[in-house]
């Protein structure tokens, strides 16, 4: 069935159509989450259900009226964001995880070359970033300290000051990282 027709049927209250979409992608979707996002099966099922609910709400609210891709791709896009949300919440609950790669993956485009090279470029970018940004980001991402702990350790007025600086540092780091990746790509081409 055409995705436009599916959207219209769901928008008109056809719960059977929504159930059909749910069943159609469920197995493949859960396998994808387990393989590509290192979710366990229970997490994958939860993320899938939340993604279906988000899809439904987007259709009913009118946020999704036309698709620029197919319905399956749209659903996978929702799921990707839900995984990041889930991981971010998980990291806030348990800061002992160590390097918070999900947040770092959101920070930069990891698909540019490959993860191993990107980690080397990230280290180089952190060095170029310099202090106080380098120290602040290392304390937050690598040591899992809260903004309050960072403010106290570095001697900032309060956590809001540390958080504001962290945002500025991330912007600077992203630019440095992207420039380094571009240089590396240019070197590979030449």
Q: How would you sum up this structure, described in words?
A:
Helix 7 crosses helix 9. The protein is mainly alpha-helical. The longest helix has 31 residues. It is built from 9 helices and no strands. The chain has 2 domains: 91 residues, RNA polymerase sigma factor, region 2, helix turn helix motif (Rna Polymerase Sigma Factor, Chain: A), CATH 1.10.1740; 89 residues, Arc Repressor Mutant, subunit A, CATH 1.10.10.
Quick structural summary:
By secondary structure, the protein is mainly alpha-helical.
| CATH homology group of the largest domain | RNA polymerase sigma factor, region 2, helix turn helix motif
Tally of DSSP β-strands:
0
CATH class of the largest domain: Mainly Alpha
List the secondary-structure elements in sequence, H or E. Answer: HHHHHHHHH
Total domain modules? 2
From the coordinates shown, what is the CATH architecture of the largest domain? Orthogonal Bundle
Main structural class: mainly alpha
Low-confidence stretches: 93-113
Average pLDDT reading: 79
Radius of gyration: 21 Å
Biggest sheet details? none
User: How widely separated are the two ends?
Assistant: 48 Å
Principal-axes shape call? elongated
Task: Itemize the secondary structure elements and their pairings.
Blueprint: H1 3-11, H2 15-37, H3 41-61, H4 71-93, H5 101-107, H6 115-129, H7 133-142, H8 147-154, H9 159-189
List keywords for this structure.
190 residues, mainly alpha, Rna Polymerase Sigma Factor, Chain: A, Arc Repressor Mutant, subunit A, 2 domains, 9 helices, 77% helix
